[in-house]
């Protein structure tokens, strides 16, 4: 992955915004974080460019109801092998007729099976997948060479299995682009959100989840959305929103008094 240097002023601007929303960023509460490994894989692939609540969730619920015994990724692989083709499995079990997603799911399942080859129990499989998620790097998606499975999908898979990182999807990129008043790349957005979250001592996954909920589900940020970028030296002198407000009010008061004296 090409090395990208992020500007200190950009990190400071994102950190300022995270400071404003920090009280709204809570622990991960969605059911997706506690799904069994097999369902997490399906979740990840079905989520690619589809609406999560209306498309993905109903299919996951149906699958779990029909196959409560399918917990492990290796069990998912065996279930898929019972069908004539992966496409037949996806069409029958997930009510989805999308050839590209079929290939993606089949490839991701086969890849993860190589990761958990030695695991004999569900708990051992979870441990292996968590270790993989934490040790993997964002550019790992390139080594997989799975068509249609880019950095956002790869990062979401890592997040589902325990990595404290972010997926640079459309909602994350839009959030950061709005703050910086310019378009940011996927890698740049990932690095920015990780750096800013670390400064605020926030879970990157939790911040990602908050931004996604606000973007995908229309939940509004209770803070003001008009963001003004401060120069690094000014930001250092006024590190909080309150300190900036107080300084500006003082200036406004002084200007008002001068005008009254004229």
What layout of secondary structure does this protein have?
Layout (H helix, E strand, L loop, with lengths): L7 H14 L15 H10 L5 H15 L6 H9 L4 H8 L5 H17 L6 H14 L4 H5 L6 H10 L9 H11 L5 H14 L4 H13 L15 H6 L3 H21 L1
How would you summarize this macromolecular structure in one to three sentences?
The protein contains 14 helices and no strands.
Task: Please explain how this structure is put together.
Helices cover 64% and strands 0% of the residues. It is mainly alpha-helical and 262 residues long. The protein has 2 domains: 1-222, no CATH class; 232-261. The chain is elongated and about 85 Å long. Residues 220-226 have low confidence and may be disordered. Helix 2 (37-46) crosses helix 4. The longest helix has 21 residues, at 241-261.
How many strands appear in the DSSP assignment? Answer: 0
Beta-strand percentage? under 5%
Structural class: mainly alpha
* Largest sheet geometry: none
Radius of gyration: 22 Å
- Shape category: elongated
- CA(first)-CA(last) distance: 62 Å
| Helix residue percentage | 55-70%
Helix/strand order, N-terminal first: HHHHHHHHHHHHHH
Q: What labels would you give this structure?
A:
262 residues; mainly alpha; 2 domains; 64% helix; elongated
């Amino acid at each position: 992955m090409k090395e990208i240097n992020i500007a200190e002023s950009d990190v400071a601007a994102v950190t300022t915004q995270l400071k404003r929303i920090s009280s709204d960023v809570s622990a991960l509460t969605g059911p997706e974080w506690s799904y069994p490994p097999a369902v997490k894989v399906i979740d990840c692939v079905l989520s690619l460019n589809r609406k999560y609540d209306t498309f993905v969730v109903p299919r996951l619920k149906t699958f779990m109801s029909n196959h409560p015994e399918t917990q492990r990724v290796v069990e998912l692989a065996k279930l898929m092998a019972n069908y004539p083709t992966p496409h037949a499995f996806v069409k029958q079990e997930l009510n989805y007729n999308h050839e590209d997603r079929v290939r993606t799911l089949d490839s991701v399942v086969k890849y993860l099976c190589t990761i958990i080859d030695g695991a004999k129990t569900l708990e051992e499989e979870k441990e292996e997948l968590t270790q993989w998620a934490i040790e993997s790097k964002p550019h790992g998606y390139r080594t997989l060479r799975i068509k249609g499975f880019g950095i956002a999908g790869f990062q979401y898979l890592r997040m589902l299995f325990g990595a404290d990182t972010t997926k640079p999807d459309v909602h994350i990129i839009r959030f950061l682009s709005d703050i910086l008043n310019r378009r940011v790349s996927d890698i740049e957005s990932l690095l920015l959100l990780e750096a800013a979250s670390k400064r605020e001592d926030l879970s990157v996954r939790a911040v990602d989840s908050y931004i996604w909920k606000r973007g995908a589900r229309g939940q509004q940020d209770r803070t003001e959305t008009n963001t003004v970028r401060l120069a690094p030296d000014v930001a250092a002198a006024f590190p909080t929103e309150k300190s900036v407000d107080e300084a500006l009010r003082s200036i406004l008061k002084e200007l008002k008094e001068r005008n009254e004296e004229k």
